[in-house]
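Entry type: protein chain
Record version: 2
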Amino acid sequence: MRKKIGLVGLDKNKILYFKRKYKRFDFLKIDDQNFFDPESLEISALMVLYEYPVRKLLPTFLKRNYKRFKNLEWLHLSRAGVDECIPQIKNYKFKFTSGKKIQGPNVSEHCLSLLLSLTRGLVKYQIKNTENKFRPTEIKNKKVLITGLGGIGFEIAKKINTFGGHVYSIDHNKQKSSLIKKNFKTKQLKKIVDKFDIIINCLPFTSFTKNLFNKNIFKKMKKGVFFINISRDQVVNMRDFYYYLNKGKFGGAGLDITSKKIMNKKIFIDPKKNFIITDHLAGLTTDNHRRIKFFNKNLHLYCKNKNLINRVSIKKQY
C-alpha cells in the first residue's frame, strides 16, 4: 500500500515537484477544509511548513484528534516551540520533529534589538530630560547569563561575545565552547543569579521550566539588572515579574510575548520603567530558506527511510 504524506503550506507546484521526485508516495495538500476528511486520515506523515492553512484545526489535532490518524508515523512542525503539545506528547506514538534549531539567527537578533534598546536608552530617552537621570550602559565587560544554550541561546552567546560581554550559561547539555566562561546547572540558578548584570532566558517551556523565573529568583537578582525573556511566557511567573518591575528592580526589561494575551499594539513601551514588550515578533523573518531547506531535507530522509533530524524528545519535552 502506497504511503500518503500530508503537506501544509505548500503551493501546487511544490507538491507536484515532490510527486515527481518521490514516485512511491502519494502527496495530499492539507488545510482546515479537509483536515479530517477520510482521505486525510490515511496519511502516514503530516508535514507543516507554514501553519496558517491549519490555524483553526491544528491545535485540536495536537491535543486530542491525532488519535484519529491510525497510520500516522511522523509529524513535522517548522516552529521551534512545541509547548502546546506537552500535555499529550507522552502519548504520541509517531515520530515528532520541529524547527527548534533553525530560528537562531532571527530570534537572537530580536533579542539583541531588545537588549540594545534598553541599554542604550532608546526606550528611556523618549521622556524629555531623561539624560539627567539615565546613562546608557555598555555590554562590554558585563557578566551575562544565558539560560538555555540551544540553537537560539548559542547564537545569542556569539553576538554577546562580539560586544565584549562575558557569557555564562545554564544548560543541561554542558556543551563546551570558548564562548562560554562557565556553565551551571538549572538548580544552581538561585545561588548564582545575583552575580550577573544581564540575564537572558532562552529555555524552552516544559513542565520542568514552568515559572522557573519567579519571586525567589527575581528577589536574588542584583538591582539594576537587565532582564530579557525571548522564550515562552510560561517560563516566567509574570505576576512576580511585574511586581519586581514596579518595584524598580530592573535597569531594563524586554519580553517577546508568545501567549494569547491580546495586545493593542505590536510593540508596547514604558519609558519610565525602561520596559519593552513585543508581540511574538522574534520568530518573524524574510529569510525562510533555512525553514524550507530543513523541511526538504527531512522529507527526503523520510522517503529514503533514514533517520530524521531535529527529533523532539518525549522525555525532555523539546
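Comment: The mean pLDDT is 93.
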